[in-house]
Amino acid sequence: MANTVLIVDDSLTVRMDLHEAFEEGGFRTVLCATGADALAAFDAEQFDVALFDVLLPDADGVELLRGLRAHPRHAGVIALLLSSEAEVSDRLRGLRHGADDYVGKPYDAHAVVARSRELLQRGADAPAERSVLVIDDSLTFREELRDLLSDAGYEVLLAVSGEEGLRVAAARPPSAIVVDGVLPGIDGATVIRRVRLDATLRNVPCLLLTASDDYATELQILDAGADAFVRKQENLAVVLAKLAAVLRKSTATPLPPAGPFHGQVKVLLVDPDRGFLDRAAEQLREEGYEPVAAPDADDALAMLAVQPAGCVVLAVDDTGGLELCSRIRSVPGLRDMPVIGLGGGDLLLDCLAAGADDYVRRDDGVSTLRAHIRAHIRRQQLHEQNRRIRDELVRRELEAAEERAARQVAETRAELVEELEWRNRELEAFSGSVSHDLRSPLQTILSFSELLMEEQTGNEPGDLALRIHKAALRMNALIDALLQLAGANRGQIQRSDVDLSAVAVDVVEELRQRDPERDVEVGIQPRMRASCDGELVRAVLMNLVGNAWKFTGRTLRARIEIGCSPQAFYVRDNGAGFPADRADQLFRPFGRLHSSSDFPGTGIGLTTVQRIVDRHGGRVWAQSEPGRGATFSFTLPEG
């Protein structure tokens, strides 16, 4: 769907001039002669671009702009102000009230169209993957090509002259250009030659359309830099075929545009001599630049703060001009902007010392100044293009370095995984060895030590046999703990809905059967459930409740609580406790806070608890005070 532009100007000539230019550019127009018409259009029309004349018979264009920005349907519309008022104060007023650009009269209507298209593109979410610029002054042929290319999946940009085509291409580099050989103004071959001189566009494929059958014309077309040519009398399907062919061969990566290379560049003129400003402005407009006049330094700095210029020309006949030059060079965003000093005497050295790039004597005339401006703008554009090329090369190198680093990380990770799998296999083999090879001699030691104790003639067994038997029992318990720890690290977590209250009842019953002489009060909160691995979490409760059972062994009226809060599950006892500042040592392998003679154990149980809880994605912690019991808490997040 074509973009719509609202044109508000009391001059019929201006309205029609802009209407024709926008219509040729593929826009739909809504024309208004007064502020009242514009306000009515705000409510009745939907548009993408709005152009306001600043001076209207019944309204102020800036006030209309403010109304546009406040309107719920048009807050994001591209807005340009048109005015014959060239003072910086007028420009500042418009730009500060929400204008996207300010165009001084007289202006080039096609330049206004190109600027509108550029601003629209900046606000677009994403450019099309393939876009083709068609430059042809024939409305009929242009529309035929638009339909043909659109149906083939291309986004089509349109221009009616070579100059406009260059501006459109500079604002938004296309994937390819199709240009007619005969155009008003510069011809198609010249367009292609200029494209090949532009660092941003030189790799864009170009097709030239010609009505000639002359062999010499073909040579001229190819010599101009065209990738291919199509005769207009041929079937238009040939355009599609040749376009696809040149796009297949095109390997250029387009660089982001730095700005309108062929469009209107703003030149800020700072000079109290109004006559000289007017003469310079007239010649700069003929050159294709947009002059902006500022009578003093304050207006110039205010203008640059709102809208930077492509070049600054400032009078340095007094110290104020030199001071302004130094101030411009002190602003980070303006340091690279070309500055040309203008004076009546030989102030070259003073001007360059203040930071200017060049100096022109006022007596040398406006033509000389224009030549210097042209040279510095071209040099600045070349510098910007080279900088963007360097930035692109650096970006590609960074991407390549990131890719290499990612590949190295992946290879290292694969090696670590392979080594981890190997170590796990070794651990499983060790566990099997511990389970079978070490248990067999240990059982022999236990059996013979029991026989020795039974054969003792006295009432008490021999001290040596008793010590052997106790050591063997402790070693057997340690092997069981190590095997349990190894099992906590192996295999996949098999989650299911587990009734933790029932598991806790089973664990407590097993402890009572092992130690029937103990009388321990145990409270178990009902209906505790969790999504977890039932066998592993049973080992967690067995270790935590078993510790509570053990460390309440010397407590009168021992009590153990097994429950849950909104934050965690817990096992609480009123036993021996431990210093709170040493709680982190409990979860280390073989970490103990009490002597084995007081409370025997392996020092592996809490390490097993931590490994199991970690594998479930939770955490475990302990709180205690010596002689006042302990609370062990753990979480089991949903998998």
* Straight-line distance between termini: 50 Å
Number of strands: 22
Taking the sheet with the most strands, its summary is: 5 strands, parallel
Low-pLDDT sequence parts:
251-262
Percent strand: 15-25%
Structural class: alpha/beta
Strand order of the largest sheet: 2-1-3-4-5
Task: State mean pLDDT (0 to 100 scale).
Answer: 81
Label the overall shape.
elongated
Number of helices: 19
Helical residue percent band: 40-55%
Radius of gyration: 43 Å
Summarize the structure.
This protein is an alpha/beta fold and 639 residues long. The chain starts with a strand and ends in a 5-residue tail after the last strand.
Description:
- The protein is an alpha/beta fold and 639 residues long.
- Helix 4 (88-96) links the parallel strand 4 and strand 5.
- Helix 4 (88-96) packs parallel to helix 12, helix 5 (109-122) packs parallel to helix 7 (162-171) and helix 18 (534-551) runs antiparallel to helix 19.
- The model is unreliable at 251-262 (pLDDT under 50).
- The two termini are 50 Å apart.
Give keywords.
5-stranded parallel β-sheet; 19 helices; 22 strands; single chain; alpha/beta; 639 residues
SSE arrangement:
Elements: E1 4-8, H1 12-24, E2 28-32, H2 35-44, E3 49-53, H3 61-70, E4 78-83, H4 88-96, E5 101-104, H5 109-122, E6 131-135, H6 139-151, E7 155-159, H7 162-171, E8 176-180, H8 188-197, E9 206-210, H9 215-223, E10 228-231, H10 237-249, E11 266-270, H11 274-287, E12 290-294, H12 297-306, E13 311-315, H13 319-330, E14 339-343, H14 348-353, E15 358-361, H15 366-454, H16 463-489, E16 496-499, H17 500-514, E17 521-524, E18 529-532, H18 534-551, E19 559-564, E20 569-573, H19 605-615, E21 620-624, E22 630-634
Parallel strand pairs: 1-2, 1-3, 3-4, 4-5, 6-7, 6-8, 8-9, 9-10, 11-12, 11-13, 13-14, 14-15, 17-19
Antiparallel strand pairs: 16-18, 19-20, 20-22, 21-22
Helix pairs in contact: 1-5, 2-3, 4-12, 5-7, 7-8, 11-15, 15-16, 16-19, 17-18, 18-19
